[in-house]
Input
Amino acid sequence: MRRFGTGLTRRAPHSTRRRRFSTLMAGVGAALLALSACSAPAPAQQDFASWDQVVADAQGQTVRLWMYGGEEQGNAYVDKTLIPAAARLGVTLQRVPVADTKDALNRVLTEVQAGTRDGTVDLVWVNGDNFGTGQQAGAWSCGWTDLLPNMGLTNPADPLLANDFGTPVDGCEAPWHKAQFTIAYNSATVTDPPHTLAGLLDWAQEHPGRFTYPAPPDFTGSVFTREVLNSVSGGYQNVPLQYDQKAFDRLTPALYSRLKELAPALWRQGKTYPKTSAELNALYAGGQVDFTMTYGPAELTKLVADGTYPAATQVLTLTEGTVGNASFLAMPATSGHQAGAMVVANLALSPEQQAAKADSRVWGQFTVLDTAKLDPAQRALFAKLPQSPVVPSYEVLSQNASPELSAAWVPALDDAWRRLVLTGR
Amino acid sequence: MRTKMATPSPAGPRTWLPGTLMVVPAVVLAAFVVIGGMVTALAQSLGLFPLVGPPSLTVAAYGAHAADLPVGIALSLAIATVSTVVACVVGFSAALIIVQGKWCGKLVAALGTLTIPVPHIVGAASISLLLADSGLLARLFNNGGQWPELVGGPWWIGVVAEYGWKESAFVALVVTGTLATRAVSYDETAALLGAGRLRRLRHILIPLSLPALTVSATIVFVYSLGSYEVAWLLGRAYPEPLPVMALRLFNAATLTSRPEAAAVAILTTVLSMAAVAASLAYLRRSALWR
Output
């Protein structure tokens, strides 16, 4: 009675506590079962003839954007820049923070299962396997991004925007920003920084206890294992983007034997791992390890400036490059405010918003727009952004960038990691 | 449990009925959520609510993690047992101090009352900020040496510490209520007849507070067995207690893992209900339970 206050309890598994069940109530349960068994069919999609109609319909709508809440700068950008701009367009935007994007996906899947037509999720910041899983379950509204006027400023041939971890985007999500997987280190303690991923693993083995990575299925830890897969396979060219069991059986033994060999030299002898990238960041901030890693290198500038990270933090540039991706705003099919959601997605794609977001003092997320398609005034917005003392430019970071493997690889690699590396010790 | 406690025992049949009626709205509301959730979880674990594909009755979800389940059950039971023992010992001692009524008793009562409304997730985050490798204490006292693995370590010390701290306040307040209303007069009588502190503790305070202690211990045990946030925040990646395992499977991007998550949740529920049944059976045999 006294503890049902935390918002998180509603996600708890239905193990029930402290109440004795009267037999009288069994009937209620049976009725509920009958109710949920005849759930409604999948919700229909709204059709709009023109952008003007979308804008007109959007007036006064409230759009709830569910996004990973662990990036303070991202939260501040949405609260202070995007929400006021949406309000000027007549749309009330609300940010719903989640600990993991999977929570938002699960909410959408539950609503799809229940046949909801006016769901609580109108937009999700998403990519990768979360997008792919939602696509399998028919959770996303599709074919709406062509209507967005600002989609014309992106390059339709850009492979990062056409495929999301190997799943064709098909107008089911609007691009928001690009990211590059980045490893950072403390140059005060690491005097001989490696230049390849294989070199990094060797460094970790020579310096026991000074390196670790988040345990997959954490997003960042999962990317790290895919980087190691590329490395032990002799480059990303040797790993087929589309998942197939034969390639998995051929390539992954080398991956897991390398990670198992590495484990005793990791933080806490590799008997356990940080469960989230936030935990790894805390270890790095506290000087317990010398490396951290992130898919959002933009945050590094502020974290170094405010003293959270050591002042000598540098980005480790690997000669073979790192994985890059784009992330998107997807609109669930269960959303009851699709016009409003489209207006927000279009606004988020505008050169003004993209440039504001690319400022490392604001959020520092790389733009998805094609600079060749911008007019001089719009290009000037990007040209006057300040250079970060920690993070090199996107051009440098994305050199030799490798594409993300298809979403089907991700759970297979994560499960095998759990089985072979985590429980094997 | 509620119905029984809401019914004053000396009352006749006339007063009994309205008392039960007044409790009905609360019971209906609670039962709708609790039983509804359990029935849905049971149906999902049996493959009747798949996210994709046609429903079919199967127990495959219960066998999908056969290798991890025994470890998970043992770990969950161990955490719940140790947390309950810690909470009961600390809570009972605190109750004794509170009943004394001196200034330190008032202080302990105030601390206990302040602890109750803190949500477990806030408690867990605080423990983590305090005891973790990069936590406050490690930074204050650890000059390059090895900080003990309190959070995320092999002995789950952070988890037990959080449950022990929060739940001892709960136990203390429940037991204080019993001691203050039932035990004080006996205690004073015994003292007047010359019984020493230890004898009064053994023959009066412990026996009289045993029913309240058993009830609160059951609540603590079942709660720490079924909740996930503390173990998730302060535990390690492997092995996992059952609720953490259920949540990981529920949140997995694989569509087929939801029935498996429901199966783990049902298993946790069965364990909890067995604990409640055992405790009720014990209480029924106890002479003080009326």
Summary: Residues 157-192 of chain B form the longest helix (36 residues). Chain B touches chain A through 68 residues (CB under 8 Å). Chain B has twelve helices and no strands. Residues 66-285 of chain B form a domain with the MetI-like fold fold (CATH 1.10.3720.10).
